[in-house]
Amino acid sequence: MLLTYERGQRPGTTRLLAPLAVFCVLVLAACASDKVPPDEWASKICVAVKPWSTSINAAVSAAQQKITSGSSPTQTKADLLTLYGGARDASNRALGQVQAAGIPDADNGAQVAQQFTAALTTARNAFAHAATRTAALSTSNKNAFYAGVVAVGQQLTTENGQNSAGFSNVSSDQLQKAFDSVTECK
After folding, report:
1. What's this model's pTM, rounded to 2 decimal places?
2. CA–CA distance, 155 with 84 (Å, rounded to integer)
3. What is the dihedral of CA 175, 181, 183, 186, to 10 degrees?
4. With contact defined as beta carbons under 8 Å apart, do 59 and 87 qualify?
């Protein structure tokens, strides 16, 4: 829509706001129609989160097997960087899938979707922080290195401790029923 004005004429507020109001109504209408049925949304979330959780647990187990009392600080650092980088990447993939799932058409649907997004964002960031902190550790002094590894692990545990509520406190009866019933969540 082109607006033309004669020399010296200032546009009226009504003329400028009318197209904006129409645009906002159209955007809101489009957003309202993009809501996903609860069962479909829960299925998409479980398809994203279950493999993510499994891959994190498998990566931790693999790292624990590799890191032994005989491991050098250099090898331990490499194994931890692989673990944290892989966990960060897995969290980022799951986050993308959760965001792509949309907003569930349920009571508190937007809030629950935001909880899952926030939990995966926190996990991704926590693993990224752990990788950055681990990369900065010097391996020249074994005792100092392992003290640093413990500190990184404690910080990671603290940061990821916030996530459990994001996945478990579903404040929607409709969505809780969907999580309890869809095959992908069992």
Report:
1. 0.77
2. 13
3. 90
4. yes
Percent of the chain with pLDDT over 70: 78
10 Å CB burial of residue 33 (0-12, 13-18, 19+) is: exposed
Q: What is the pLDDT of residues 82-97, one digit of tens each?
A: 999 999 999 999 999 9
How many of the other CB atoms lie within 10 Å of CB of 67?
A: 17
Task: Name residues whose C-beta falls within 8 Å of residue 29's C-beta, 6 or more positions apart in sequence.
Answer: none
Query: How many Cβ atoms are within 10 Å of 40's Cβ, its own excluded?
Result: 15
Q: C-alpha 149: how far from its chain's center? A: 25
User: How high is the pLDDT of residue 34?
Assistant: 80
Q: CA 40, CA 76: separation in Å to the nearest integer?
A: 42
DSSP 7: T
H or E segment and range at residue 60: helix 38-66
